[in-house]
């Protein structure tokens, strides 16, 4: 049997070391020898002795936060020994290595998988006091290990060495040490009152030293208004400390 389908580019990539690596630009392969975490429903194939355990958002505290904020990652734990292939709606997959002392803030919708050695929490994004349809909460990852994120299309990585503004639904992840806020991109005027809008009422602002990953597509806004999310943020209280 002959076909371009069976070319070397499409054959399974083998390695002698366990862990995650790209099978291709849209599929992640985890050579599992122990445990890893992945988004629920992201498994497209596996080989070997692998068990899957649903974890919700990774614990009671995170589950409560996810219910209040609309953010978080519905997780499953992968355990055993074998090869697991993960993908998410044919999005591009990127692997990020976190080192001790690193902290990465990321939209929960962009998380595909991560090493069980990493810790994550759902936290309020500082400076988000202005009402908006964008989310006010993100997942912050710390520790030492790898995380796989997805983007809709090829992203751009912006070096934040000057005030930087990004559509909240296009911001995939950023250095957690950056100062964040909201910037009104559209000025209130007669055109706005008459129903004419640029569609860019608010942008997310970043300042400090770090980076922001921006995808060439906007995720749909989370359910509920920014005002509702601010009320929910008050309910979180000590959970976000």
Distinctive features:
16 strands; mainly beta; disordered C terminus; 10% helix; six-stranded antiparallel beta sheet; globular; 241 residues; seven-stranded antiparallel beta sheet
Describe the structure.
- The structure is a single chain.
- The protein is mainly beta.
- The protein has three helices and 16 strands.
- It has helices spanning 60-69, 190-193, 226-236, and strands spanning 19-24, 27-39, 43-56, 75-86, 92-98, 103-106, 111-115, 119-124, 137-142, 145-151, 156-160, 164-166, 171-175, 179-184, 202-207, 210-214.
- The strands form three sheets. Strands 1, 2, 3, 4, 5, 7 and 10 form a seven-stranded antiparallel sheet that branches. The chain has a six-stranded antiparallel sheet with strand order 8-9-6-13-16-11. It has a three-stranded antiparallel sheet with strand order 12-15-14, with no helix packed on it.
- Strand 1 and strand 2 form a beta hairpin.
- The radius of gyration is 19 Å and the shape is globular.
- The model is unreliable at 63-71, 129-135, 188-198 and 222-241 (pLDDT under 50).
Q: Can you tell me the residue ranges where pLDDT is under 50 for at least 5 consecutive residues?
A: 63-71, 129-135, 188-198, 222-241
Determine the fraction of residues in helical runs and give it as a percent range.
Answer: 10-25%
Distance between the termini: 60 Å
- Summed over residues and divided by their number, the pLDDT gives a mean of 78
Computed CA radius of gyration, to the nearest angstrom:
19 Å
- Counting copies of identical and different chains, the oligomeric state is single chain
Number of helices: 3
Structural category is mainly beta
The largest β sheet comes out as: 7 strands, antiparallel
């Amino acid at each position: 049997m002959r076909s371009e389908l069976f070319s070397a580019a499409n054959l399974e990539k083998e390695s002698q070391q366990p862990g995650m690596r790209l099978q291709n630009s849209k599929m992640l392969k985890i050579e599992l020898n122990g445990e890893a975490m992945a988004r629920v429903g992201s498994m497209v194939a596996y080989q070997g002795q692998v068990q899957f355990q649903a974890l919700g958002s990774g614990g009671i505290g995170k589950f409560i936060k996810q219910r209040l904020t609309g953010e978080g990652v519905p997780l499953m734990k992968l355990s055993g020994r074998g090869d697991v292939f993960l993908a998410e709606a044919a999005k591009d997959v990127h692997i990020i290595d976190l080192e001790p002392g690193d902290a990465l803030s990321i939209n929960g919708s962009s998380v595909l998988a991560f090493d069980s050695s990493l810790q994550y929490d759902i936290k309020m994004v500082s400076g988000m006091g202005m009402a908006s349809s964008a989310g006010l909460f993100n997942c912050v990852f710390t520790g030492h290990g790898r995380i796989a994120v997805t983007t809709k299309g090829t992203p751009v990585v912006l070096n934040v060495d000057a005030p930087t503004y990004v559509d909240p639904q296009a911001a995939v992840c950023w250095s957690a040490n950056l100062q964040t806020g909201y910037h009104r991109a559209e000025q209130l005027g007669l055109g706005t009152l008459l129903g004419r809008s640029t569609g860019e009422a608010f942008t997310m602002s970043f300042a400090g030293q770090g980076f922001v990953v921006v995808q060439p597509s906007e995720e749909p806004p989370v359910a509920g208004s920014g005002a509702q999310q601010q009320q929910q943020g008050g309910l979180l209280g000590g959970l976000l400390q």
